[in-house]
Amino acid sequence: MSATKIIDRHLAALRSAARPIVPEDDIFRAFEKVRVELWEVGLLADGKYLDRIDCHRAMLPTFESHFGYVYDERTPWLHKLLGFRAGDIYVPLNAPVRPRTPGSTLLDTVRHEFGHSWAWLDRSFVDGPWFREAFGGSYDDDWGAAPDFDADDHVSPYACNVRPAEDFCETFMTFLRCRRSLHRFDARRGVRRKLRAVARAVATAAKTRVPSVRGPRR
Ligand SMILES: [Zn+2]
Questions:
Q1: Which residue among 27, 78, 87, 192 is least packed, with the fewest CB closer than 10 Å?
Q2: Helix/strand number for the chain, H first, E second
Q3: How many A from CA of 119 to the centre of ligand 1?
């Protein structure tokens, strides 16, 4: 790594350490609001499916720019010891969330992370052919290099990622946020196609998976 890159990384770490702590109440308010959205679209019922996912403020800060994260079955042993639970959503102490900036709010962070939690909870559904058709690869794929950002095809710059999983989560976040006005994306054909695929997958899961999938045991 070059000296400039090392300095840049240290400066970014210092800047992130100076960010304010996200109030726990704000995180829980956002979590409850998104749970209502998930209930409305049918992905959450009492004790069923995404109702099994919890949300926490992480005890650790991020020294980069992570808004949130979800551990999967590869949760590092040290984090398991510290009490991190696979499938749950964690918002770093100093997450770079901003009010009124689409994609950067706490609400959007929780919506995005619920996409990862959904994949953790019901991988066989997310690994269905619909995912590959919509996002060009499977949830675990890695392109090696991010494709060029194309506003017609990527709902946000972060959707244009090395992992189709992030494209899916950004699309899922947008679906939840704009579920009553998806026609606003009609001019962006690639985005519209992905949003429709997610809407269809949500409707199918609500009908066929929510009553039957209990999810991995904790
Ligand atoms: Zn993500």
A1: 78
A2: 8, 5
A3: 11
